[in-house]
Amino acid sequence: MEHIPILRMGEFLLITVQVDMHDRLALQLQDDLTEQIVRHGSRGVLIDISALEVVDSFIGRMLGNIASMSRVLDAQTVVVGMRPAVAITLVELGMSLPGIRTALTVERGMEILRDDVARARQEIEVEVAEESADGSSQV
Amino acid sequence: MSTSRIPEILRQHENTLLDDWTREQKQLTDTSNRLSDAELRAQSRRFLQLVQEAATRGNAVDIDGDAYKEVRKFLEEVSASRAALGFSPSETATFVFSFKQPLFAQIRASIPKAEEQVDEIWSATLLLDKLGLFTTEMYQKSREAVILRQQEEMLELSTPVVKLWEGVLALPIIGTLDSSRTQTIMESLLEKIVETGSELAIIDITGVPTVDTLTAQHLLKTVTAARLMGAECIISGIRPQIAQTIVHLGVELGDIITKANLADAFRVAMQRSGHVVVRKAVITAKA
């Protein structure tokens, strides 16, 4: 059974789709990805589809599903490098993939993920700081 | 039909026919400023020869057959060139129809027997009518080809994607947005986004005369496709009436940034990319 490789880069996972995505492969990717996110506690997933030339509604829905599943597992998803023809097809199919973040290049996609994670950390730190400040004032 | 004497008459009286015919043509349409006499005569002579060859070889009335291939080709050329010269359809068809009188006169002169005469004239009429109609049809076709080419050119001309700044594209749309144009616009914008790696595109609709639900839908599609690729779109140039129409139609623009004019949109673009536009202090002559 062929797999789409999932590469780990620190707290992010990197997926490059380089073959024609058929339905079984897509489902396999879903399985593998969710498992990897849980195993490594990843915070972000970057899917590079710049080599993908053909999409159908199933693949479109699968991208949406992967994003939602990652969200549930507390990881951001960014889809990068979508080709114009693919974008037009998805729009014509009525799939605007509202929950998905997109970027033009892998570089920009990584920046978005890093920014998001950094922002999430900051928020937590602020909350923790506020809480401890509350605690100390009460004492 | 095999006994038709038209080919024979055409061959025997070629020069007389040619003279009468060119005179007839000059009388019917004033071609002097568009076509020289020599050209007209050359065209007529070529037509006569071709018809004569064709009529000798094949069925004299069936112009769709193989025998008339050359004649059809020649008429195609003639109507195309006349269409280009500004002849009207009837003027173009007159080229063929004006041949009737000289030919009939010649038939009358060469065939004394009344019955045969009528038969020959009838088949000559059929032939010339068909050729004349064919000419008109060709004229129409060449005109249609011109219109089609112009439409394509307009489509090309009307979709320039310009680079405003590093990472900022602008797409000024001029004219009504229909489905085929939207397709071209969408494709050229998305291609340019990939090519330049721009993350922001400003779609300016100042030049769009009316916005209906279909236009709005086309715009939304373009914006969504760009978003899927990782670029954001700003719609600018929304005139007061169009803003009203959009609301009255109940078009939901969602979270798309809209601005009244291109300058405002550009300002947003600069802010997004972290640029600041500062006016240099003007050093006035103080001393």
Describe it for me?
The complex is a heterodimer of chains A (139) and B (287). Chain A has 139 residues and is an alpha/beta fold. Chain A has helices at residues 23-40, 57-72, 84-92, 106-138, and strands at 6-9, 12-16, 44-48, 76-80, 101-103. A five-stranded mixed β-sheet of chain A has the order 1-2-3-4-5, with helices on both faces. Chain B has eleven helices and five strands, in the order H-H-H-H-H-H-H-E-E-H-E-H-E-H-E-H. Chain B has helices at residues 6-12, 14-28, 37-57, 69-85, 89-97, 100-110, 114-157, 179-196, 213-229, 240-249, 262-272, and strands spanning 162-165, 168-174, 200-207, 232-236, 257-258. In chain B, strands 1-2-3-4-5 form a five-stranded mixed β-sheet, sandwiched between helices. In chain B, helix 8 (179-196) links the parallel strand 2 (168-174) and strand 3. The N and C termini of chain B lie far apart (108 Å). The model of chain B has no long low-confidence stretch (mean pLDDT 85). Chain A binds chain B through residues 79-84, 86-88, 90-92, 96-97, 102-105, 108-109, and chain B through 186-187, 190-191, 193-194, 197-199, 221, 224-231.
